[in-house]
Design brief:
single chain; mainly alpha
Length: 152
């Protein structure tokens, strides 16, 4: 049983989803706290724009989740990447912006059209984009110049 567990934990995709799940817990937890206690479920009014409480909470929580996810993914999943750290981070952020955009569209649909509670919509949207994110990070953010990878 121990050997089987070690083999599973050595799989890159398992470590990726562990990292993503950990970052998602941070993200959704901060989202809940921000939406309910920081913004008190009220929109933020500025003279030039109004941010909805779900959108403001998403911006804060996503930033915290992004930093957590990059650190864990870089150090637990794609250790063999030969890109410089700042290049990895820049690429990671570019992918994250795309994923954020997809999350925003999906969340707005679930909250406004489907009438889902915002925290549930946030958790669902985060989980639903995981596979695409793994593929893009593997082939772009943490690319390895040498085509032979030690583990898949």
């Amino acid at each position: 049983m121990i050997k089987f567990t070690v083999r599973i934990l050595n799989l890159k995709v398992v470590r990726y989803f562990f990292s993503a799940a950990s970052a998602t817990v941070v993200d959704v937890g901060i989202y809940f706290l921000a939406f309910n206690y920081l913004f008190h479920k009220e929109d933020l009014q500025f003279s030039f724009y109004t941010f909805s409480a779900p959108t403001a909470s998403l911006a804060l929580s996503y930033t915290c989740g992004l930093m957590t996810n990059f650190f864990l993914t870089k150090n637990l999943v794609f250790k063999e990447s030969d890109l410089k750290g700042h290049h990895q981070f820049l690429r990671f952020v570019l992918v994250a912006i795309g994923v954020l955009f997809l999350n925003y569209i999906l969340m707005n649909f679930l909250i406004r059209q489907m009438q889902w509670y915002p925290t549930i919509a946030r958790a669902f949207s985060a989980v639903s984009i995981g596979v695409l994110s793994f593929i893009v990070h593997k082939t772009f953010s943490f690319r390895v110049s040498n085509t032979e990878e030690v583990e898949d």
